[in-house]
Amino acid sequence: MRSPTPDISAFARLDFGRERRTGFGETVYGAGKTPEQLAKIFAAFRAKRLPALATRVSAEQAAAVAERISDVSYDAPSRTLVGAWRTRRKAPRLDGTVAVLAAGTADLPVAEEAAKTVEFFGAGVRRLYDVGIAGLHRLLDVIGDVRRADVVIAAAGMEGALPSVVAGLVSAPVIALPTSVGYGCGAGGVAAALAMLSSCAEGVTVVNIDNGFGAAVAACRILRTRKPRR
Amino acid sequence: MRSPTPDISAFARLDFGRERRTGFGETVYGAGKTPEQLAKIFAAFRAKRLPALATRVSAEQAAAVAERISDVSYDAPSRTLVGAWRTRRKAPRLDGTVAVLAAGTADLPVAEEAAKTVEFFGAGVRRLYDVGIAGLHRLLDVIGDVRRADVVIAAAGMEGALPSVVAGLVSAPVIALPTSVGYGCGAGGVAAALAMLSSCAEGVTVVNIDNGFGAAVAACRILRTRKPRR
Amino acid sequence: MRSPTPDISAFARLDFGRERRTGFGETVYGAGKTPEQLAKIFAAFRAKRLPALATRVSAEQAAAVAERISDVSYDAPSRTLVGAWRTRRKAPRLDGTVAVLAAGTADLPVAEEAAKTVEFFGAGVRRLYDVGIAGLHRLLDVIGDVRRADVVIAAAGMEGALPSVVAGLVSAPVIALPTSVGYGCGAGGVAAALAMLSSCAEGVTVVNIDNGFGAAVAACRILRTRKPRR
Amino acid sequence: MRSPTPDISAFARLDFGRERRTGFGETVYGAGKTPEQLAKIFAAFRAKRLPALATRVSAEQAAAVAERISDVSYDAPSRTLVGAWRTRRKAPRLDGTVAVLAAGTADLPVAEEAAKTVEFFGAGVRRLYDVGIAGLHRLLDVIGDVRRADVVIAAAGMEGALPSVVAGLVSAPVIALPTSVGYGCGAGGVAAALAMLSSCAEGVTVVNIDNGFGAAVAACRILRTRKPRR
Amino acid sequence: MRSPTPDISAFARLDFGRERRTGFGETVYGAGKTPEQLAKIFAAFRAKRLPALATRVSAEQAAAVAERISDVSYDAPSRTLVGAWRTRRKAPRLDGTVAVLAAGTADLPVAEEAAKTVEFFGAGVRRLYDVGIAGLHRLLDVIGDVRRADVVIAAAGMEGALPSVVAGLVSAPVIALPTSVGYGCGAGGVAAALAMLSSCAEGVTVVNIDNGFGAAVAACRILRTRKPRR
Amino acid sequence: MRSPTPDISAFARLDFGRERRTGFGETVYGAGKTPEQLAKIFAAFRAKRLPALATRVSAEQAAAVAERISDVSYDAPSRTLVGAWRTRRKAPRLDGTVAVLAAGTADLPVAEEAAKTVEFFGAGVRRLYDVGIAGLHRLLDVIGDVRRADVVIAAAGMEGALPSVVAGLVSAPVIALPTSVGYGCGAGGVAAALAMLSSCAEGVTVVNIDNGFGAAVAACRILRTRKPRR
Amino acid sequence: MRSPTPDISAFARLDFGRERRTGFGETVYGAGKTPEQLAKIFAAFRAKRLPALATRVSAEQAAAVAERISDVSYDAPSRTLVGAWRTRRKAPRLDGTVAVLAAGTADLPVAEEAAKTVEFFGAGVRRLYDVGIAGLHRLLDVIGDVRRADVVIAAAGMEGALPSVVAGLVSAPVIALPTSVGYGCGAGGVAAALAMLSSCAEGVTVVNIDNGFGAAVAACRILRTRKPRR
Amino acid sequence: MRSPTPDISAFARLDFGRERRTGFGETVYGAGKTPEQLAKIFAAFRAKRLPALATRVSAEQAAAVAERISDVSYDAPSRTLVGAWRTRRKAPRLDGTVAVLAAGTADLPVAEEAAKTVEFFGAGVRRLYDVGIAGLHRLLDVIGDVRRADVVIAAAGMEGALPSVVAGLVSAPVIALPTSVGYGCGAGGVAAALAMLSSCAEGVTVVNIDNGFGAAVAACRILRTRKPRR
Q1: Which of A82, C166, D124, F101 has its CA 20 to 30 Å from the CA of residue B51?
Q2: In chain B, what residues touch A206 (CB-CB under 8 Å)?
Q3: Are strands C12-13 and E124-129 parallel, antiparallel or unpaired?
Q4: Is G26 exposed, middle or buried (0-12, 13-18, 19+ CB in 10 A)?
């Protein structure tokens, strides 16, 4: 197959050439796709022996795909689906470690989407969960671990203060990851997202609410920039 | 004059009986009043030898009032105007101290409105400014002072994280005071206000953006509740 | 166990030292936690013989916890779950009474979350429900009861006018508690919350929509400030 | 001139036939019109000897019109401009009285726009100002006056609770008139408007923020419906 | 029982004296009440032989109430529940007719809530449905009927233009009733509500989205003002 | 039947004369209609042998209609229901082709609603799906096809950039069709709709979120304007 | 100069090749440009003898440009600046007429921006102003003129109902142009824009608030599609 | 002076130790500071011979500071003020280049704030302006330059599509910088910010609207992470 953009049943043009352009292979956003569509897409990846990752996959979707393709692996907390086949090409190891922080227990699904995606792209992950700022000592207890990471992803809902506090304490890039945890005024992650965008700490960047995947890819883009391009 | 609600030129019904009901005398919200109206209101207070405080008073308004009534005193940073006459009745001293924190230099006008109002109602104030969370040590340096206060008012714009961090470190009531400092998404104090309402720290209460006066009255209501009512 | 921040299965760092710092023991926000997580957390509290309170607990969650830990007690209207074991340490009685007002019948679940939390922390509660301002005499009938309380929590949805009217009639601190009761423009408690923040009555402070727990902790912080700290 | 819709310099089609259709003559919304346009429109009214009212007229606009047409009369507080000429036709007196309430002094310009408009259309007005709900006795002092009115217009900014409280106390139609007085969350009258739309009091209707004119016309429509149509 | 505000099981204070004050008896907002609460409230009305109306009652709630109290009558489209017992007191007939217009078929449930409420309070109703402005002739076909009504309620979702067009064609009071019909930008009735508040037609007043009940009570307040008060 | 606006069971006034006025026959918005109402409306169309199209029809609604009227045809992805009977009158063929673009797989249901509606009104459709701007070559691969169309409909959720990029590359009218695909800040299509309205590309027009039907009718209005009107 | 994208002083890359691609020459968005930048850009157009149009040009900007380049022509009401030199190439006449409707006098500046832009691109314009729907006969008086146009642009602020009513009466494409005329809830054109996007009339498309230029280009794109391109 | 947090006139606690902690020296947010405050702060930097940068400095502020401290240098387009003295310590050169892209001419001030800040911190900058996506070839012309950069900052207002298109074409980290350029729906940069947060391109991170400074510090944090820290 020559074209890097094959048609699959008239609904998708998989971008198998993306890795060449951006350094990261095509991945799949599961939400809004039928199980049939997801299964066909995974089959296309498997046919090419390419690594496959889908995010935002419900348990129902995953089960339906697994019925059609046996060698997939589903992680319920992060709602990620990974192709369990041997890929033709070695995943390029990214040099470095990403610290993934979560402010509270309810932020775990989003933090795990980030952590699993970082691992999929071949970098190291250090998980530091339930370190929200209401009990500052919890964060200060682990700040040494955070400082040893090359990139920091800080997930928080509610008032979203965690990345602001962290960015004042470390020199690494800090990616703020708002989660939809919260209620009332600013519900659905809006308060957290606005607070992160308005951070008085310098150089914090932000991804969309619950976008653990995006935070992870941003972290991997950073790790990738660390060494001479080949 | 018998009625506690005299008419002044058909535009205001001053509530001179309010102190009896709520413990706090009538005060004046300056915004939206003409200098003539303000001057007439201050004259009514002076005639009764009652303490007078107006907030949100512009320099222009203050000058216009001062032309008509000489014994007023204007504080430009906090935009407060106070009757400088001797009052008939001793201001009841409130027992206790309010710590007024400000995250950044730009939050000072609002913090000062709070501080000046607390002083007007007869309680002590401890000012602790520019202690925002991007440089956490600045807050930790003064946390002992904060802990010695009976009530804490924490003013912050931008991401508004200061009261959340403080409330995890002290046992006193913490009143979060969002300021309109900020820009872009969440501008005008919206990010700060939402973050404070969404605080993961327990028992933080919030007043409206830039409402230093309201935070101060709330603090004084708390100080007043501390002792047996007479 | 020495550390005040033990890890529980990699998802939570319980802050058993919080009481020392803030005067209030750790509590649990139930929303977004799996029954397994909740059960493990309650087990940790029981192991330490510490009082345990979880809020925002659904009937399903409560049943699942109760299956694992028999001595818990669930209150359906307020959605609170309390550890029914004998605690090692006497709950410090807070001196004073909190009046909990609710504007309408639909506001009861939120008001009850507040009332139950106040009781958990050891203060007295006076419930005054269905006293909304559309029938002002209902409020005026009970205003004597409100005045005898040390702190007032006023819960209201819809137009959220109750705390503003109450604050003009009493001298105690008034905590405005917006509820998500309402529909259309300003639905979900937004109208009530904005109205409370914009109150023309002085010194009203506000918590987030439906945050009965937070209003209660704020009330208890106030009661605690009433006496000399030991 | 036959057509009821004459063109004036290609920018306006005055609806001189409106009174026949809706019972109320054409009036002019001043905002966004040049002084030349306003002057030409007033000239057209004068030529037909019809009563003329323009609202939202700035002092500058009014001065510019008055330079061209001498017999106009401007009221600065309400920003209304009225044709001071004798009209061909007797203004039909509307039978009844409208009570115009204002919560605070800053609400007066809007309340006066309403009052002046009611007077223009020939009904009686009873002004009751500075009766906001933070000092409930101020409203209760005048509630008898309110009850004697046929229609009530209640103007309020801030938390906008006045019409809700009033509607629980009277049987007449209550038109809620939110004003742009306020700041921070819910600034510009948004909190007041949402609160009025969400009123728990029955049968309150609402006009747009600062729309004193619209409230007045609605009141006059009601007065007009009171008697047998001829 | 002397007091006009009896307690029902600690959750409601029925305002049986409301009719005396406002001319309209107490009614019940069904949303957020348990079937037990609803049933007890209806029982209290029946015990006093007073007319009873509840709105926003789901089919489930209605069935549960009907199990406990046999003589209630439920109308599914309008979701209203009415006490079917003979009332002690004759419903005061309101003199006049309310035209209830609906722009589209999907607006019927809200329009019917209005119509049923008007009928409950004893006035006449003229239903004119599916007369939205996209096919103007449908409205013009029935405009004579509209003109013969004393008050007009115009329900519309989507762009909410119906009341604006109607108010330019009739002299009676026009109450704009936005419905939650619509989607996308301005979904949930927000576009309609904003458009109605911003109407360029004079004297339109607005109730909250889907508040057919409130529109009806406002119409009845108007009808009631039509005659000399006794 | 003479009148072009017959009443169907008091809930709908079908506008069978619309085609004469606007060139497009009456169609049906399925959302919010009961199956009974839908079935009666389709029966009315069939009785007149007119082409019938309903959009936003759920599978449940469609099944219920099909039970009553056998000759209807339902397309699940686009949620459109079409009358499968022979119509009295030849559908006027519209001269020209509409290119329907979709940025991602999840946008297909909306794009298909547009495509099916264009086909219903008798114009040609060229479907070009999954050509979002994250992989620009996918769009550039098909830009020749886009350029050969007479009108372009570009559907996109998320950041909604597709129509802006397309409009810079073609001279035909471009109708931007935001979809509700997306989450977090700007969820539900809000980000896409705002971006499309704010497009820096010239002459892009926008329809509401998910309004594939409206985009299609707009495209057909354009095709219709291409030739001399008869 | 070969490249179609020359750099002008490092701040602009004029797209002189745009006409070839999209059929419309490069134009200039004046807002946010310094007079120096505008003057340099106009000089570049003049040097190439290309037609030049800038929109959103303030009187100050225009004067500053005119000082540097004498042969420009400024239209104050529409804030458009046009190069008054002879262009090398004949403006291609677009076949057809665009009806530009404005609901009120205050909408004229935006409507004129549209009209002037249509004329710049070589099509005919029919202006029909002050035909808002509050006086429906004003629109019905001119509907024949509207029907004779090939494309309709309908500008309206406030409740924005004009395009919805028009689209039900004509078969041509209707472009809804919301203006920022209005105040209070839905101010700045938001109510109008939402109403237009939510229009119950079929096939209305919308441009951004006050974007007369965009509406005009969209209309010209439509005219251009009408016949074989030469 | 020992303490790293000296007090300046009670309004600021400069964090001279920040560089040690985060790798970036203290900088100054000029907005909301009085000229006196700014001057005192710059004097403190000069006294310590530290590099000084202030952003969001108006021409008035800059002139006032320059009066007091002669060796400062103001850049009007970017509104940055830099201390022009020799610093004690060599600025650590950051290894790498940041490409700063701007979609349109109006975005230049924000892009320049970013560029100047990157230069202040010692990294290289490549400016590529007016490369917005409406004329895609402008971007494609320079994409080679973009690809050679180590980090990309893409500034855009309006529909904010630039960073999404860029991120699909390069492998470096892409920081999206929304600007407040735009009007109407999504004005003030809201449309751009939402679109960037919702980007379908992977791994884009976002800073607040107009926050060129923040984007620059984020870029420098990334450059700093590239090699072993010295």
Answers
A1: C166
A2: none
A3: unpaired
A4: buried
Contact E10 C127 (CB under 8 A): yes
Any bridge partners for residue C75, and if so which? C80
What's the complex ipTM?
A: 0.93
CA dihedral F25, F31, F35, F40 (to 10 degrees): -20
CA dist., res. C8 & res. B38, Å (int): 61
Task: Tell the burial category of D228 from Cβ atoms under 10 Å away from its Cβ (0-12, 13-18, 19+).
Answer: exposed
AA letter at E3: S
Q: Is D14 helix (H, G, I), strand (E, B) or coil?
A: coil
Cα–Cα distances in angstroms (integers) from residue B111 to residues B52, B97, B166, H10, H38, in the given order: 20, 15, 16, 13, 19
Nearest residue of A to residue C157 by CA position? A184
10 Å Cβ neighbour count for G88?
Answer: 9
Query: Which residues in chain H have Cβ-Cβ distances shorter than 8 Å to G29?
Result: 104, 106
pLDDT for res H3: 41
pLDDT band, residue F227 (cuts 50/70/90): low
List the structure tokens of E171: 């002299």
Q: Calculate the alpha carbon distances from E177 to C199, D118, D168, E154, E212 in Å.
A: 28, 24, 21, 6, 7
Q: Which of E108, E134, E183 sits opposite F11 (nearest CB)?
A: E108
What one-character DSSP code corresponds to residue A91? P
* Residue from the list E106, E135, E141 with its beta carbon closest to the beta carbon of F32: E106
Q: Are strands A97-102 and A151-156 parallel, antiparallel or unpaired?
A: parallel
Option in D23, D173, D220 nearest E221 (CB): D173
**B219: pLDDT strictly greater than 60:** yes
Q: Which of H227, G196, E200, F9 is nearest to A95 (CA)?
A: H227
H-run or E-run covering H167: helix H162-167
**pLDDT-derived band at D11, boundaries 50, 70, 90:** confident
Chains F and A touch (3+ CB pairs under 8 A): yes
Phi-psi region of E185 (alpha: psi -120 to 50; beta: other; left: phi over 0): beta
Alpha-carbon span F93 to F90, nearest angstrom:
8
Bridge partners, F227 (sequence order): none
Q: Is the model's pLDDT at D228 over the cut of 50?
A: no
C32 neighbourhood in chain A, CB within 8 Å: 105-106, 181
pTM: 0.95
| Token pair for D208 | 């747009």
Q: In Å, how far are B22, B159, D7, E102 from D160, measured between CA atoms?
A: 21, 29, 41, 30
pLDDT in tens, C199-221: 999 999 999 999 999 999 999 99
Mutate to test the interface with A, among C3, C9, C13, C113 (most CBs of A within 10 A): C13
Chains touching chain E, criterion 3+ CB pairs below 8 Å: C, D, F, G
Q: Residue F1 has what pLDDT?
A: 32
Which H or E run includes G74? strand G72-75
- Hey, are the CB atoms on H160 and F195 less than 8 Å from each other? yes
What is the enclosing helix (H) or strand (E) of D91?
A: none
Q: Are C200 and C190 in contact (CB under 8 A)?
A: no
For D216, list phi and psi in degrees, rounded to 5: -65, -45
Within 8 A of E194 by CB-CB distance, chain G residues are 185-186, 190-191, 194-195
Instruction: Give the residue-averaged pLDDT of G133-149.
Output: 94
Q: Give the minimum alpha-carbon distance from E191 to chain G in angstroms, rounded to a whole number.
A: 5
CA neighbor of D104 nearest in space, from D129, D138, D140: D129
Taking contacts as CB-CB distances below 8 angstroms, the residues of chain B near C174 are 221
